[in-house]
């Protein structure tokens, strides 16, 4: 099976699992899944977040997702428990489609590590 086909199948499996669990079956988009990862990484799953906190959650998720690729490195948790990352290497310029594929691959790997999908 080609890498692209496997990624597509795993992505679809993951979207189905997460959508069933968090949106009553309506398919979650990439941003919604990134947000969920941010909430997971923060560890405060039953908290209501303000708009700026939601953006920070997405930033946390992106840093965590791209950490294995060498773009970010975890630094510390602040006094409120929010993780902080530092940039290790700037992301190369990517077209929108390439950016989407990179994020989907990183998300699939994140959930493979957690054995949510196989």
Please, could you describe this protein's structure?
About 55% of the residues lie in helices and about 10% in strands. The protein has about 120 residues and is mainly alpha-helical. It is globular and about 45 Å long. It has one domain. The protein has a two-stranded antiparallel ribbon with strand order 1-2. Helix 1 (about 5-20) crosses helix 4 (about 95-115) and helix 2 packs across helix 3. The protein contains four helices and two strands, in the order αααββα. It has helices at about 5-20, 30-40, 50-65, 95-115; strands at about 70-75, 85.
Provide a quick synopsis of the model.
With 118 residues, the chain is mainly alpha-helical.
Rough outline: globular
Sheet with most strands: strand arrangement:
1-2
Order of helices and strands: HHHEEH
Beginning-to-end CA distance, first to last residue: 14 Å
Oligomer: single chain
What is the residue-mean pLDDT, rounded to a whole number? Answer: 93
Unreliably modeled segments:
none
Number of strands: 2
Strand residue content: 5-15%
The percentage helix is 55-70%
| Main sheet characteristics | 2 strands, antiparallel
The number of domains is 1
Decide which structural class fits the backbone.
mainly alpha
Radius of gyration: 15 Å
**Individual helix count:** 4
